[in-house]
Amino acid sequence: MKKVLLPSLLSADFSQLDKELKTIEDAGVGHLHLDVMDGHYVPNISFGPGVIQKLRPKTQLFFDTHLMVEEPDGFLESFREAGCNLVTVHLEASTHIHRTLQAIHALGMKAGLALNPGTPTQALAYLMDEVDLILVMSVNPGFGGQSFIPSTLNKIRDIRERIDRSGREIILEVDGGIKKNNVEEIIKAGADWLVAGSAVFSPGKTKTNAREFLEIFGRY
Ligand code: DX5
Ligand code: ZN
Q: What DSSP element (H or E) covers 135?
């Protein structure tokens, strides 16, 4: 599967979001990661469907939305209306995760399932048929700019094997602490989609940062 870079909007300058989007599009980026935080499931608040809806007409980017929201079921429709292409929910945040994943599909969006660093991979066993993407958190969710947790590499390998055994084309996404100097080992462990926030968005350097990542991805 082609490697995909997903800059995380969380690290962008919120006072000029459309300009930030244009910069990454000009660099050749096609996907955007949108971190939605509710202040309950994670100790931070970011933005919600209202902001996403306003951005939708300004860009062609694929909207990959990562909900760090407790009991997300009641919000799913608003993210569909906001124009999200894919919605990822946390295994740990939904009481009936199987139902939540089915509800995302019923709304016509792709469904992703996120696992926190401390969550075992066995939890995936009976959910493989319900997901289009598995998101491996390589930091504890809530903030950009944290360090990659090294034990995640084994977890990525484990999930890569599970996906390959399933015979399904499930995307393996990794999120948190990804930099130019560790991205290759993460790709080699089996990641398909790689989220990078603070390593992409930086005043005056965003386009160069994105291009440098894309150049590395071109080797795989
Ligand atoms: C953390 C978010 C990540 C984060 C990534 O809760 O899910 O997407 O913004 O930021 P960096 O790349 O700075 O770790
Ligand atoms: Zn994220």
A: strand 133-137
